């Protein structure tokens, strides 16, 4: 079920350079085919930093030999202007798997190709627009870039300036420089009378009228460049725009070159097919794109989570970067993530924060944060091999380990919580349980915490951490495992897909539990209609939970690799690949009617590609402690 980005409104293809972030879609509400920039973000990747008004930015085209406009919204009110087929989407891709997003679409005989990228080290975006004919006949055509701005506070010749807040400004223009008209879009492109009304508080559509150009044969026309530049002041936005325009003819090549240089530092996998090589590059690129300028890894793909720092997800991105060989990025991401930590009243850390306010914004209760913190720090340290990391972060390491040791009840397990799934608990009619995930990740964290303690000669602490880990594993064995099947919690024999991670990513469960657990999960968590693995058994939470999720499907495949069953592993890996978007992004899960949710989740979906391929190629080794 390959699909184009946007069939669900939570789906966006992201483009970012750390300074700015763009969302791109190929479908609008009602599944109307359209190639558009849905939103731009500066300087924090948060919904409050969105620069454009709905419906974003798109393009209209008039082939002067045709009666039909390339007009996704049916805006143009001209005689016979909308007879014919709707816009058809031909292809989407990240060029070479890197940071330039290309879309090819057509209507009738008019083919439009757009490429969108963020030039390195700048607060700007460029979108190139090129056209040709499907029949390769010569013609003449006009391009009209359309931008819906939140307001216009000033125009300087053909540059338009919008102000979002005191420190968020947007300047936009086109190259070659062309007249910009605000107001009625249909009249602007057909030459009718337009009443110009610009007000700094009101949204306004802006159309650039590019002079008609000749299309010759099968070649695309010369590109028209849309340029967006952001700044913390009007002057800064205009300076960014000027710098971007000065380098515009070399920008696409230079951007690809920078991404190529970055990817050359990635761990090499020599045996990949061309298709898997593309997925590998896209996934690594997207993981890098999730890092803001200060190194903070955030969720970049969809509302309402846009701009959130989830400790679990951020540490997953961080550790994936480290495993893929990007140690410098991983160190920055680690420190940036942990800088958000605020203690809960019980001494654990909140697990979700807003990137702008840095305040907690969680909606459930989870006790796995401390174990994940210990894992994340260890994973980066174990690859960087620099004890300064441990010395810098020892207060957090020690606090996390001590919290785990002191927050077990008479069962020997960590106090009841929501486990790995934040949408589980009393707020949804579920009672918190002694979740296997929470106690197991806590045990794994303690084991890795002991390694770090020994590295700085805190040997007594190391012994305490290891003893606590052993006690947790004994409690799991006593209460949460039945006939070799690892269950969700002490309170139920229902299953939870997250337990498979403790055979692969966090290998602490004994091998004799592997086959019974694999068999049970295949029987009870595999979707009987469309394949893939549910995250929980009989879990009643938000819409879609009893649909297959990308993460758990990768996890089960990895567990089959540990069980030396390569064919079964690739059955599940390929299920995910077959449910990808054409551009190579994977959904978080599939909702009803086959619509995917949550594109652009490098912590979850795209990291699954990276980690499963690394495990398959045996490029990293985690010995059981």
UniProtKB/TrEMBL annotation:
Residue ranges of every copy of the GH15-like domain listed in the record: 367-501
The record's annotation in InterPro entries points to: 6-hairpin_glycosidase_sf, 6hp_glycosidase-like_sf, GH15-like
The molecular function GO annotations come to: hydrolase activity, hydrolyzing O-glycosyl compounds
List membrane-spanning regions. Answer: none
Biological processes annotated in GO: carbohydrate metabolic process
Q: Which PANTHER family match?
A: GLUCAN 1,4-ALPHA-GLUCOSIDASE, TREHALASE
Name of the protein: GH15-like domain-containing protein
- Tell me the lineage of the source organism: Bacteria, Bacillati, Bacillota, Bacilli, Bacillales
